[in-house]
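re: that chain from earlier
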Amino acid sequence: MGISLRTALIIHNHDVKIAPYQNTKTAKYGYEIYRLERGNYRPLLTSEATFTTEEEAQREGLDLAKRFKETPLDELLKDVEDPSLKELLINLSS
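^ sequence. v structure.
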């Protein structure tokens, strides 16, 4: 799964929620990571529906969000060399 640096920073810096969903064609479950911003729904990431149970999808979504939250900010930004770009990315995700 590819994820943008900005999305990773938003998940790192904000409270997010996990919502499992079921694909009606395959009956498999996936999850969405989202946040509420000033009362507005903001989807951040949607997984493929590959999980057998809703609980498994929920757990995987929580685990992924937890990994981003626990990753030090310096680690998330390690490939960004330009200090002004780092500052811009941090400000955009705040």
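Helices lie at 5-13, 54-70, 73-76, 83-93.
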